[in-house]
Amino acid sequence: MSAEQQHRDGQAADPGPRSLAQALRERDDASLGALLRSRPDLLHPVPTDVTQLATRAGTRASVLRALEHLDRFALQAAEALAVAPDPASYQELLDLLAGDDGDEEVAGALPATVALLRERALVWGGEDRLRLVRTARELLAPSASHSSPTGLGPSVAEATSGMSPGRIQAILTAAGLPHTHDTVSAVAALSGLFADRERVAELLEGAPEASREVLTRLVWGPPYGQVTAEPAAHLRWLLDRGLLLPTTPGTVVLPREAALSLRGGRAHRVPEPTRPRVAVAAERKPQVVDAAAGGQALAALDTVEELLRSWDEGGPAVLRAGGLSIRDLKRTATVLEVPEPVAAFWVELAYAAGLIASDGGYVEEHHDRHDRPDTDAEGYEDEETRDARTRRRSGEAEHYAPTPEYDAWRDLPPAERWAWLLEAWLPGTRAPGLIGGRDGRDRTLSALGPGLDRSPAPEVRRRVLELMAGLEPGQAPDPATLLERLRWERPLRSAGPRREQPEPPRTGVRPAYGGGVAANDPEALRTKLTEWALLEAEMLGVTGRGALATHGRALLGAEGRAEGAGAGTAPAGSARAAVVAALLAPLLPEPLDHVLLQADLTAVAPGPLVRPLAEALGVLADVESKGGATVYRFTPGSVRRALDAGRSATELHAFLDRHSRTPVPQPLTYLIDDVARRHGLLRVGAASSYVRCDDESVLDEILADRRATALRLRRLAPTVVAAQADPRTLIEGLRAMGFAPAAESAEGDVMIARPHAHRTPPRTPPAPVPDGPPAPDATLLTAAVRAVRAGDRAATAPRKETPEAPGGLPRTSPADTLATVQAAAMTGESVWIGHVNAEGAASQRLLAPLRVEGGYVTGYDHTADEIRTYALHRITGVAELADEPGGAEPAR
Predict the structure, then answer these.
(1) 815 Cβ contact list (under 8 Å, min separation 6)
(2) What is the pTM of this model?
(3) What are the protein's UniProt keywords (predicted)?
């Protein structure tokens, strides 16, 4: 038995419900819950009854959102129903999608698609009376001014609605049809002619060749064309026979019935009932993929740490409009040794993970005072936050800096630090690839600035990973087929027939990251989001050599974020992060506690170093190159930096002996001793500033040097020289001359210059901008279905009309109200009550009173589906339920 035959057999023979509300009312709780799950916008707020649910499901905003979440074939089915008669039978819908020749794939996929449209309340009605929701029909059906997404235009009846009866009769004569007595029958006759394939073919046998070419260009849409006041002969032939009908002056349209006959009955040129397959571009061993991804994950951690380390004492200033300046982004890219768009990605990732923020403003300005992490329960701010606000009021520039969460993140094991970043990347809605482009007002989009949120980004990112997970381990997908699959699953609805899509990236071609995208081009945005998701996953180590790694699959298969955990919280709060970290940990090398010193004043770290060693070596030497092995170079400036930080020459020698697997080279020993011998020989203090030195010849040499002219030096004593520059400028000037001065305090002690780590107050990471309300959980769905059912029972229960206010709030005297509810409590019956709450809002409630005492009535409220208590003085009146033959009391 065919699929469509099974579908027909499973439907009832009766015409079905008369409205969408009745169709929803006849559903069981599981089906109602499925509707609310697929369209969560219907839940906010929870509808009071089924009628309100049906009304909300038919609103324009809700229908638009539901259409945007259909796959391509479901959308094609909805578009076909929009051009079919209302109501249409299942067979008529199948004929529109499969055409006169039929299509087995369409016939096999259509039953499930109709069931999907019914589940989402876009289609209702019985087997022979399928109805598209009116709002959806208005959105998808053609009219006299625009065509359908199928490329079909208005029907003959719609196109001739303003035409004179004489003109219609003239068209009938030219088409070979007999005259009629009225316009309605004339339009019906012309519609019947165009709907008959054989008669249309006979009519076109005598058409000029140019006329048939015009129809060929219009048949698949758009169906509109322009004509002059004096049309050519081949156009006049079509106009005379109604194959082209005027809509506006100078514009004609091909009627829908004629277009369908020329198309062979198909509403779409190419029905797409099956989802495209994601092709495999390359296949590698899973072990190779995991190893490559592990190495990239380690590189990602090093890059983020380098970024945060460079901003440790205070990062770049915040622009007045928010974000980083182009100059600061270039500097950051230079530090990280990556292109600027890639540097913007790492900056945005650290920001999304809660590791960096502005030191003078809330990341989320919409937070309530008590939600802010840097205020207590009374709303008092800590000292650091008050200082930041004072700086803002005084006009002092704000800067980006690491947050306190950075210190917690830095102390975690590498795998957990990586999982922390992934927990921020996967649900994030900010799109770093847009940086450098323009927004809708032609303003440049900057890193960390506003305007970067794109709500489809998380869905595209997750769906890309899910499609990659559908392949065998080690298989890398073809980006072109991956993009085509995403287009099928989420087609972009448009007002006209689908155009050819932009050419996707070719297999093996790696698209460049960043570059921006037009603000009003959703198709280009989705293409870019797909490309960026692939590139970001590779940079982060979710994928390796184009294929999804084992720990990348765990991102999708493990349980999601625990309740209450947010981006920037420790990964221990997420079961998914724990699983991912456990799978990644074996792929990361163990940190080393040694380096290899070489005679050319370099040290080679053959792998990642333990944190104390890496930090100490970063002060003592400069990083010369990065990669699998990091090369450090010792210079006089780097050694002086270590001495300025308070380390003595003896401590530096002991440090190198302890952590080097090779003997300390003699040139390095000489370098440390030579710099240490000269370090502190000169002392700089604050007078305006001064230089003192026990060796008078050194001061003589300084005063004789022309480079010291800008410092405006003057000798005060044989061992003291005063300067007109501040101490810091003086130290830098003397160092530029080749000396190694040291700063001293007012007491004459050498001042140790230790780096000061600058931190922002506690910050909340930026919250993703969701694409609509979140999907409800099972508990919320169950409660919502119960509330809708209870409200529906209350709304549909009949009641007796009170003469004082027919059809409105029941109104009775206080004595009658009290007597009626007392009698209902004794007999167990339910009554209608009118109630006004403390805010003055009036409502009707179906109440089964249980007890009446102390001026209050307590009973089971069928409208709210719970026990409630109401004050008698707020009850406007009581009405008894109407008697129904065979009826029953509302269920409690």
Answers:
(1) none
(2) 0.74
(3) DNA-binding
